[in-house]
Amino acid sequence: MKDERKTEGVNQYLKFSGMGMQMAITIALFTWLGTFLDKKYETDKPLWTAGLSLLGVFVGLYLMFKQLPKK
Prior knowledge:
It contains two helices and no strands. By secondary structure, it is mostly helical. The chain crosses the membrane at residues 12-35, 47-65.
């Protein structure tokens, strides 16, 4: 019984830390794509970077909320 509680707590910790890593990677990829497009199109202001990094935040939040328990 105690062993099950220990592994359950560890599993929850790994699940939530994985969700944070997933969100960080999603935001980083969208930001990288934005900087790539800003350099490719030689924009004066980093509009692609700003827009895509904001989109990455929303996508990351969506993926995180989708994985949360339904309780």
